[in-house]
Design brief:
Layout: E1 14-17, E2 26-29, H1 45-48, H2 58-78, H3 87-100, E3 103-108, E4 117-121, H4 128-135, E5 139-143, H5 152-158, E6 162-164, H6 172-184, E7 188-191, H7 209-217, E8 221-230, H8 247-256, E9 260-266, H9 278-289
Parallel strand pairs: 3-9, 4-7, 4-8, 5-6, 5-7
Antiparallel strand pairs: 1-2, 8-9
Helix pairs in contact: 2-3, 2-8, 3-4, 6-7, 7-9
């Protein structure tokens, strides 16, 4: 069970490097099982996730889970206060959630601008959500299935998340219009344009639909590059939440891992101004946000879904391509 947002991906078999494995040092990724509207990265816990060295003692890991739950309970209790909670306090609370799990937080780069902002990042872990909230609190774009998750579904809905129904293709322009409306209202919206979580050693491509909302609203795009490492700087995969991994198993693995560091590198914002289409905007954000190492690039299938003019959101910025994921 991994998180996903807008997009679609068709992924051929690829080979991803994997440190700390036997001599061949490589991990095979299976072909993507996702459909056009239900992207699914080929990463799985069995093929991608590796240990990061000595593990924490079980009692300490259990205490860390209790601490995370306590902070989440505080967050739930504060939801009715809504916009009256200072953004600085939300940032600190988000850092505390990550730190409570035993993960150090390192945020670098310029401060994210205020006003309407499309916050985009590569997607690796459930930790990405509080990590990005520590950069700038924002409304999350989430798949509609999350509404049915126990506790997490209620919490996500009450937090002001925007939902996309991936079973209704014609609902995509409506979702884009809702994102654009939030941006025009001066809100920040967080989107993971890869459409699925990846292990961090392989990666997908940025889907374009959410970038149309930034064009429609004239809002800047803020790329953020996320990575998880051990203290010696080596990339780690223990934080990855991929494939058929359960949330409980992922949380337990993170709380038992020693010396894990979550890094958020805030890149320069991209102003859509002179860009006439979402493709070039998505490509610019992808080049800025995806990890420098780029060990494996798993391209998506180039398939377009035509959308009728009646389905298109009204846009002050001319679009140079049909609306697709």
């Amino acid at each position: 069970m991994s998180t996903s947002s807008l997009g679609a991906v068709g992924v051929p078999t690829a080979v991803a490097p994997s440190a700390g494995t036997p001599a061949e040092g490589r991990t095979r990724h299976a072909a993507d099982a996702g459909t056009l509207w239900r992207p699914s990265a080929p990463c799985t816990p069995r093929t991608c996730i590796e240990g990061t060295g000595p593990a924490r003692a079980v009692p300490l890991a259990a205490l860390r889970i209790v601490a995370v739950l306590f902070l989440l309970a505080l967050g739930c209790a504060a939801i009715p206060l809504g916009g009256r909670i200072p953004a600085g306090l939300i940032r600190r609370w988000s850092r505390w959630v990550v730190r409570a799990a035993g993960v150090r937080v390192r945020i670098t780069g310029p401060a994210a601008p205020g006003g309407g902002l499309l916050l985009v990042a590569n997607h690796v872990s459930w930790l990405d959500i509080p990590l990005l909230a520590a950069v700038r609190p924002a409304r999350m774009l989430a798949k509609s299935e999350i509404r049915d998750w126990p506790v997490a579904g209620w919490l996500t809905a009450r937090s002001g998340a925007l939902f996309i129904d991936r079973d209704r293709i014609r609902a995509l322009p409506e979702t884009v219009a809702r994102i654009a409306g939030a941006l025009r209202a001066g809100e920040a919206v967080t989107v993971f344009p890869e459409g699925s979580t990846w292990c961090g050693r392989a990666q997908g491509s940025f889907r374009r639909a959410a970038f149309q909302a930034a064009l429609d609203a004239g809002a800047p795009v803020q790329p953020v590059r996320l990575s998880y490492r051990v203290t010696d700087g080596a990339a780690g995969t223990s934080a990855a939440f991929v494939g058929d991994d359960s949330l409980l198993a992922s949380v337990w693995r993170v709380t038992r891992a020693r010396a894990l560091v979550a890094e958020a590198e805030v890149r320069e914002p991209i102003v859509p101004g002179g860009r006439c289409d979402r493709r070039s905007l998505a490509e610019a954000a992808e080049a800025s946000a995806l990890p420098r190492e780029r060990p494996v690039r798993v391209p998506r299938q180039q398939r377009a879904v035509p959308v009728t003019a009646a389905d298109q959101p009204v846009s002050p910025t001319p679009s140079c391509e049909p609306l697709t994921a």
